[in-house]
Design brief:
Layout (H helix, E strand, L loop, with lengths): L3 H5 L4 H32 L6 H26 L4 H18 L1 H16 L3
Helix pairs in contact: 2-3
């Protein structure tokens, strides 16, 4: 069982780990917002690329930063990251293998939007 009283004591290592994890999450969301805006701004400078393509890629970049921040915060709390990393790799492999036609179509659409041949 968890020892909540020991966790909330000011001298407890787990209390400061919890505070550090909260700070890491707060910084993660701030960095993710910055990355999302920066990617969107960078892609808006490319001629011929639609605005929604930049917004979509910016959103994806932001979520990747959030995912990395959550993994880092869980590591600060002392959670064993090997099973979590294994699960994430398996989910990513399933998405890539099962969604390959969708990913190819999405990439072709992005390419057509960037070059605008019609």
């Amino acid at each position: 069982m968890l020892d909540f009283q020991g966790m909330t004591e000011a001298g407890s290592n787990s209390f400061w780990s919890l505070i550090l994890a909260i700070v890491v999450l707060a910084l993660t969301f701030a960095v993710a917002r910055f990355v999302r805006r920066r990617v969107r701004r960078w892609l808006s400078e490319i001629e011929g690329l639609e605005e929604y393509a930049g917004a979509t890629l910016g959103r994806i970049a932001g979520w990747i930063v959030v995912l990395l921040g959550v993994v880092l915060a869980l590591g600060v709390l002392g959670v064993d990251m090997v099973p979590i990393a294994l699960i994430l790799v398996l989910i990513l492999a399933m998405v890539v293998l099962m969604g390959q036609p969708l990913i190819q179509s999405w990439g072709a659409g992005m390419l057509l939007q960037a070059r605008a041949p019609f």
